[in-house]
């Protein structure tokens, strides 16, 4: 798949020179496994060229938390609350080196997220609500995926799994996790992984690496939350359904425990009958 000159040009020196000293907001973690739920990392700002060189190091002479801290850049829009990430706007010089695969109609484009990770950094397991490409430009990544149907075993908090260590999970705390079927692949420079919407993924950067994540709207545009700049807010109909369910559960609290249990089970059966796919299995 043709990706442009980025796979050969994007060395540490070239990246540093191309975008220079523009400031970027980054994640800094003292441990390799980043956890968005417990926020075991801090946000800091660095000149882009300084950040790139630090992210490429194993040990740091200058650091925020520790000499072996990990760095992660996930590009955002000019105003992260209103604007989506677009490499053509945030990193225009580098964007000229990239050829995005023509897999979807241009008007369905949502965002192009520029990512840089230290070696060994692991991102939390989560899902996105849009189809996307993970384009590995330089370095190597391991990606572990889980089907949306395995959501009952992933101990979700919003869009994220509470199981941080997918290789050595705490089965006393998360006993059902063993039922989740694991899919695994390894990406090298020039590889492109298609990640369907709602598929959970956990990513480890085995080397210092640069990637580009391209998201597009495969559902009708009105299906998505207009305030979503990250591509991870549930579709508006799903959000409304969850709110209705929460109100229904609150109403059940008015019943004695025995009745509450009985009618809750009836609700589950009705959801299974009306909403589950017939080929579930």
What would you say about this model in short?
By secondary structure, this protein is α+β, with helices and mostly antiparallel strands. It has helices at residues 6-9, 12-19, 48-56, 87-90, 92-95, 236-252, 257-275; strands at 23-29, 42-47, 70-74, 109-117, 122-126, 131-138, 141-146, 156-157, 160-161, 183-187, 192-195, 200-205, 209-216. The chain contains seven helices and 13 strands.
Give the end-to-end Cα distance, rounded to a whole number of Å: 34 Å
Q: Output the radius of gyration.
A: 21 Å
Helix/strand/pairing class, anyone?
Answer: alpha+beta
Largest beta-sheet characterization: 7 strands, antiparallel
Mean pLDDT: 96
Helix content: 10-25%
Helix and strand sequence: HHEEHEHHEEEEEEEEEEHH
Name the shape in a single word.
globular
* Number of distinct helices: 7
Strand order of the largest sheet: 2-1-3-4-13-6-11
How many strand units? 13
Unreliable parts = none
Strand content range: 25-35%
3D structure, described in words:
The chain has 281 residues and is of the alpha+beta class. Helix content is 23%, strand content 26%. It has 7 helices and 13 strands. The chain has helices at residues 6-9, 12-19, 48-56, 87-90, 92-95, 236-252, 257-275, and strands spanning 23-29, 42-47, 70-74, 109-117, 122-126, 131-138, 141-146, 156-157, 160-161, 183-187, 192-195, 200-205, 209-216. The chain has a 7-stranded antiparallel β-sheet with strand order 2-1-3-4-13-6-11. Strand 8 (156-157) and strand 9 form a beta hairpin. The longest helix has 19 residues, at 257-275. The two termini are 34 Å apart. The relative contact order is 0.15. The mean pLDDT is 96.
């Amino acid at each position: 798949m043709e990706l442009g000159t980025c796979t050969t040009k994007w060395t540490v020196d070239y990246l540093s020179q191309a975008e220079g000293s523009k400031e970027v907001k980054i994640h800094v973690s003292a441990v390799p496994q980043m956890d968005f739920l417990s926020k075991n990392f801090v946000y800091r700002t660095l000149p882009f060229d300084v950040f790139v060189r630090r992210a490429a190091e194993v040990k740091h002479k200058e650091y925020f938390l520790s000499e072996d801290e990990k760095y992660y850049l996930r590009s955002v829009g000019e105003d992260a609350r209103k604007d989506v990430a677009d490499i053509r706007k945030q990193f225009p010089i580098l964007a000229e080196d990239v050829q995005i695969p023509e897999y979807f109609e241009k008007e369905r484009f949502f965002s192009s997220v520029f990512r840089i990770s230290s070696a060994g950094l692991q991102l939390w397991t989560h899902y996105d609500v849009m189809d996307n490409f993970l384009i590995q430009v330089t370095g190597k990544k391991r990606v572990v995926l889980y089907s949306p149907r395995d959501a009952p075993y992933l101990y979700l908090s919003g869009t994220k799994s509470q199981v941080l260590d997918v290789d050595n999970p705490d089965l006393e705390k998360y006993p059902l996790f063993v039922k989740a079927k694991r899919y695994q692949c390894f990406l090298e420079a020039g590889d492109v992984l298609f990640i369907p919407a709602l598929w959970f993924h956990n990513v480890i950067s085995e080397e210092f690496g640069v990637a580009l994540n391209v998201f597009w709207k495969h559902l009708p545009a009105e299906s998505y939350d207009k305030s979503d700049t990250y591509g991870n807010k549930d579709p508006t109909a799903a959000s409304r359904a969850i709110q209705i369910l929460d109100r229904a559960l609150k109403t059940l609290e008015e019943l004695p425990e025995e009745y509450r249990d009985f009618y809750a089970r009836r609700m589950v059966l009705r959801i299974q009958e009306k909403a589950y796919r017939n080929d579930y299995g």
